[in-house]
Amino acid sequence: MDPCPFVRLTVGNLALKIPVASKAARSVIHPSSSPCFCKIKLKNFPVYTAVVPFLPPESQNVEVQTLAATFHMSKSDLDRLVAKSLFAGKLSLKISIFTGRRGSSCGLSSGKLLAKVTVPLNLAGTESKACVFHNGWVTVGKDANKSSSSAQFHLNVKAEPDPRFVFQFDGEPVCSPQVFQIQGNIRQPVFTCKFSFRSTTAGDRNQRSRSLPPDISGSRKWLSSFGSDRERPGKERKGWSVTVHDLSGSPVAAASMVTPFVASPGSDRVSRSNPGCWLILRPGDGTWKPWGRLEAWRERGAHDGLGYRFELIPDSAAAGIVLAESTLSLNKGGRFMIDLGAGAGNGGSGRKSNMASPVCSPRGSGDFGYGLWPYCAYKGFVMAATVEGEGKRGKAMMVEVSVQHVNCTEDAAAFVALSAAIDLSIDACRLFSQKLRKELCQPQEL
């Protein structure tokens, strides 16, 4: 499998030093009482907002090793940005630094603009070679020409090659589609998916789809350990499964709904307090082993969202490791993403999305917080999948997986199964007052 070129542009190691001012100077910022944040902008990409920590004026070294923003760019994104920089002036990253607390009132920002920083970018060739555009201090503010009384802002801006395997579902997971690998204009089939119902009652067990290996039903201990397939009163959706096969027909990954999606008492929605759950399985030692666990629910708000939480299940760990927890729009869809240390904003290939900031992502050591994290095998960008909203079903789903996290066919298949589970969760979290498509209903429900 040949990967597609991608570039990861990161902004991090932010810090601000402001000279100590006398109490009489009311117009001067006092770091001890004034919070600070910044907005990071790149043309045609969503805006990031990040906290900027203060450092003592005498400090020389920056010990804050955090990632504030990440921009993911495909080859087409790079070509477009490079072309625009040729005709519309030099491409640059723009950072606006504010004092005061984040937020807005009556549509106006509550922060006070302190300074603006512009970092020129030349992205040509960055898909094959890393480039550091800035690393160090820059003088900012109205007194930028007076080094003794000016503020200083520290940042690191760099671009690195981040090749990825790109997969495309040839239809929705419920339609048991083929999965193609995309490389430029080439589409090559690599997997097939089979959607089916995993029966949960003893009388129906013989009606399981032949696409599901016997081991998946035989591994009852895994299902009971990580979820519940017991009968529940009231409204529920249960028993959905997707098995991923390689081209030889061998099963290489599966997603199984182990906890039904149940309407909360007195409502017609799946709540955060009682989410549905999928188990992502991989073959090993002649049976199926759990690789990850995905919980999903319907968030309340002005626009309902799909809340989700994904955790890795390491063989040697007593508890799962949360890699992603966020929300995406149920109406418009978005990008389900696992990006460890991605920052607090929205990213993606020019599309607005809700990115997860991992609960246990590394902080405080190494470059941008990587270093000695116990599970550093998963770091940086891991995967992303486009998800269509409730009213826009039918479009082929795209999945990107970092090359560094794929060592075999089963690795890629596990991410494909996870993508199918998050896509089906859109339907599983549909209001129970609305009917599901017939493909998603058990035969006895038709």
UniProtKB/TrEMBL annotation:
Protein's name in the database: Formin-like protein 18
InterPro entries: DUF1005
Feature: compositional bias, Basic and acidic residues: 228-239
Pfam families, per database record: DUF1005 (PF06219)
Coiled coil feature spans: none
Annotated region (Disordered), positions in chain: 203-239
